[in-house]
Amino acid sequence: MKIDKLEIKNFRTLENVILTFGGYFASISGKNNAGKTSVIRCIRSLFKGQEREFSIFDEEDSISYTTAKTQWASCSAVIEFGYFLNASKDADPGLYSFVKKIAEIDNLPDHFNLEVKVRIKEKEEKEISIVINEKILEKYETGEIYQRLSSSNIIFLHNSTGGGNKIYYPSGARSFHEMMLSKDEKEDLKREQERIKKKVKKFASEHRGGLSGLLGKLEDKYEVELTVFDGLFRNSIPLGINLKDKGLEVALDDWGAGTQNRTQIMMSILSASRVKQQSNDENRITPIIIIEEPESFLHPSAQAEFGRVIRGLARELEIQIIITTHSPYMLCQEHPESNVLLDRKLFRNRLKETVVVDVSSNKWMEPFSDILGLNHEAVEPWRDVVKASRDNAVLVEGTIDKEYLEHISSLGIKGFTIPEGVEVIAYGGKDALKNSIMLKFVIEKFNRVYITYDLDAKNELHKIMMQLSLEVDNDHMAVGLNEEGKDCIEGLLPQNVLSNVYGSNTNIVMKLTSTDANARKSAKNELKAKLLEEFKKNRSVASADLKGFKTLFANINKAFNS
To answer: Which residue of 1, 110, 330, 405 has the smallest Cβ count within 10 Å?
Structure first.
């Protein structure tokens, strides 16, 4: 099951909003009171998870018209929720077979869409309509399918500020993991329970005799019968959680808040994954995971790493994960369209309705930066890096460096190729590397990253690389030769390329000695472009022509293949 789109009208501050969720991961961001919680409440009002043994909800999920209607809407305004859902026979066999039977759709395709509309009127009147692949369902069919959706345990919710599931003892509370059981596991456990139950009954019979004897001393006489509770374990089992540290087991509650939060989120993802993997359960519907503020209690660099892990798991497991966040580090950089940004309109200095901010441009991070408090000037040099779609990257100073590496790799010469799955990305010059906070964020974003920079910046960047525990050659390297004018990537070019360009462009070369800084900079950029053009002319390059690049490609391949 996957939510593709939500349409919400007249609910709290959500007077008229449409939210689309692309892919398996989606983030919802915005300032406090922007409407994030209301969106989650809307989702929860349909998918209540009523059958869960250990309730994951800490408040009533039903919607009251009186308290929930947008305050400034007309008195007769109707609260409307539109859920546009995507389901399939493989991922959601329980829903597929139920819909096919109830709606009497013999030719229901393996992938199908459900459009569920809920309208809440005055006096708490509720109207429901359902459309399946453009077929409008009758009242009976609508009621049955709506009930099936609302009681199917589809939502796994984790509120990072809520403390997770707890079991309370006289000595205090303990966190627990709700281990979901497959159909086979439940049947196996049931057989074991029956065996244990018989043994317990035997012990109970002995206890009954002793208790009867004691009670017989009282004036009032009682018949005693001891029974064994049925259904101790049904759909899940509560398990205590300990983490090992240097061989010592420590209860999760005794770890730091950040470790507790990440562990509990991972347990929610594990539970959802186990439900999806129950291939023999004909009632299975793949869950949707909602995580509120997963960045809680984490340092920014840890937020970036954890965000990357969550996004990767959503894609790998093909389970939709929707997060609410105040952190720009938790955003989906690979697919910016997966990020929803909410804001509030102002009318006469008063906050009014929630709006969805357009973040479709190339500078999609800027509105997030403004609203979430991250200076977009710090992000701008890293714009292309932040938008990277792969999990491994070689970071180079500029687009010309990127073109050199990609061109050489395209020649297919042994020892001079970029490893598969590695993206070459340009950052905005050496000064971008001096922002150690952003650099740390970028490093944590990827599974593996290799950084290059011009040799003339080596001394400036050495201390920063050491602070981040980055090793020379293993994690980063200065590109160029220790010769006058060759302390950059062009210094690695074959001599014939340098001679051809410099010899035929003497006027530009002369400008390099100009007293005008702008003229020197312009001449340098012109020569760089011409050198690249000259180098790319010859497609019949041999490995001997690339000897200047040998160490660079060797280090890159070692970094990603070790």
So the answer is: 110
